[in-house]
Every structure is written in structure tokens, then in C-alpha cells.
Amino acid sequence: MKDISILIPTYNHVCVALVSTLQQQASQLPINYEIIVADDGSTLASTVEANRAINDYTNSRYIELPENIGRAAIRNYLAGKASQPWLLYIDSDMVVRRPDFLRCYVDTPDEEAVWDGGISVGGDAHQLKHNLRYQYERANEHLHTAERRQQEPYRDFHTANFMISKQLMTKYPFDLRFRYYGYEDVLFGMQLEKHHIAIYHIDNPLSFEVFEKNEQFLYKTEEGLRTLYTFRQELKAGSRLLQHVEQLAWLMPLLRLYHQTTNKLERRFLLRHPSLFLFSLYRLGYFVTLK
Questions:
Q1: Using CA atoms, how far apart are residues 127 and 209, in angstroms rounded to an integer?
Q2: Distance of alpha carbon 273 from its chain centroid, rounded?
Q3: How many CA atoms lie less than 13 Å away from 189 in the CB half-sphere?
Q4: Per-residue pLDDT tens for 165-202?
Q5: Is the distance from CB of 66 to CB of 40 less than 8 angstroms?
Q6: Which of 35, 135, 166, 172 has the most other CB atoms within 10 Å of its CB?
Q7: What tens digit of pLDDT does each residue of 83-128 get?
Q8: Other C-beta atoms lying within 10 Å of the C-beta of residue 271
Q9: Integer CA distances (angstroms), 10 to 3, 153, 200, 202, 217, in order
Q10: Rounded distance, CA 245 to CA 284, Å?
């Protein structure tokens, strides 16, 4: 079994329940473990205050950073604070539903590789029928199976739930240029492929059950697209959207004109009536107008 540091980056999210569940599972295993939550400059005082309860859990601590350092830097920072040879990264808005979640990770073969457990999509379908993020994740849930992810292991790597050795993480850290939302995981997967580091996709998902409001999701989507545009040359081999843009180059001028003309109407419609077709069109149109 592997000794493990469970590393949770968070921003404006209370994750005490997540830590409690992980600590209970870890305490029942014959391993050395620690849980470190790093708060990347949260702006909600009530959230920070609530998360301080994490310090009361055995082998757990909550680190408060005075300012936001970014999505890549916070993960590298956590690796530097870890004391165990294996690092399990978990996004703070995930939910543990499997009673053997940690055991599945610590029982993996002892080799220099990365293990990606994947996600499942929770939530009440009726209550969330007008939530764009929920509808998007539910429509793409079939892509999250371990079998599907293993078909393209580097392209389908995500940072929400994965384990890596501290040695590998130190050798191949996240790119610090990725401060804002999106695509740091894509470049990280491409880097692992370049250095012939295996990624094994296993059936050990965390449940995704926190879905931001439509306006927040559209803002995050736009921020991610701006990140993709900034690093488009480096991400070309790992981004399906970039490949679609290249394949449909002849259509892009028309799409650009369409988006410039209708984007405000599209946005207002998406806020009230989630449409995955319109959302896909909006994403593509938004991206091509960045040029």
C-alpha cells in the first residue's frame, strides 16, 4: 500500500465534509497519510472561517494563502508541502461516494505512473433541468468512463481526481503561466506523453455535484477559451476545439460574423434556456472572434 498526501486546492468553497470523509477512509487503512487543503486567496470570509475547522481533523491542515497564485501554481505549491511519496490531487468541489475510494488508489501497482480516477455526475435532474453546467456534464458523462478515457489517455487526463508520485510531480510540475481557468491539465497531459510517463485511467470516480449558475459557467467558459487562445500553438495537439477550428477553417469567417452579430442574444438565451447545441455554437464563435 502507498503512503499518501491528499492535496486539495480550493477557492471560495467549503470542503470540510470532503476532508472529513477522506480522513475517515484514510484512518482505516494501514498507511501513513496527510490531508492538506491550500486556500488560493479566497475572497469569501465566511468560507475561510468554515474551512478552518479542517485543522481539527487528524493529520489534516488548512493553509491560507494571502493572495491568489493561480491554478498551476497552487498545485505545485501543494506538492512542495507534501511529506508522503504519493500525491492524490482532488478538487475541493468533488464528493466521495465510494467507501473504498482511497483503498483503490493505495492498492495500485507500485510503478512510476499517473492514475486518473475520473468523475461521475450527480445531482437532481429535475431541479437542475435549467442549469447549463449540469446539462453539459450529463451529456458528456459517457466520455468519463475509464474504458473511454483509456482510449486517449493523455488527451482525456483531468486534474479533478488523480494520483502521482511526488518524484514525478517535482520533475514535471504544472506550467506556472496557467494562472486562469482552463487547460493546465491538457498541457500537463501532453508533457507526460512527451516524456513517456504512463497514465492509467481507472474506475474510481469522484462525484461532481456542485454546479454553478449559468452566468458563472459562461464566464468560466469564456475565461477558458481565452486561455486556450493564448496557448493555442502549444495546445494544438491536445485540444479537440483547436482541431475543429482547423478542420472547419473555411467556415470560420461566417461563424465569426454570426457571433459578432448575435452573441448578446445567444448569451441571454443560454442564461434562461440551456441549449447544448447553442452552447457549442457560442463557444466556437467566441473563440474565433478572439483572433
A1: 12
A2: 25
A3: 25
A4: 999 999 999 999 888 888 899 999 999 999 999 999 99
A5: no
A6: 35
A7: 999 999 999 999 999 999 999 999 999 888 999 999 999 999 999 9
A8: 15
A9: 23, 26, 25, 24, 17
A10: 8
Cβ distance 120 to 208 under 8 Å? yes
> Any idea what the Cα angle at residue 48 is, between residues 10 and 33, rounded to 5°?
55
Is the Cα torsion angle 199, 201, 207, 211 positive or negative in sign?
positive
Distance CA 267, CA 224 (A): 16
pLDDT value, residue 239? 85
pLDDT at 16 over 90: yes
Can you point out the beta strands (E) in the chain?
Answer: 4-10, 33-39, 60-64, 86-90, 94-95, 114-116, 119-121, 161-165, 199-201, 206-208
Mean pLDDT of the chain: 94
Question: Which residues does 268 contact at the CB level (< 8 Å), separation at least 6?
Answer: none
Enumerate residues 6+ apart whose C-beta is below 8 A from 126. none
Which amino acid, 121?
V
User: How far is 34 from 268, CA to CA, in rounded Å?
Assistant: 45
Q: Give 221-246 pLDDT, tens digit per residue.
A: 999 999 999 999 888 888 888 888 88
Backbone angles phi, psi at 162, to 5 degrees: -150, 155
Residues of 64-84 as b/e, b for ≥16 C-beta within 10 angstroms?
ebeebbbbbbbbbbbbeebeb
Q: Tell me the backbone φ, ψ of residue 179, rounded to 5 degrees.
A: -90, -30
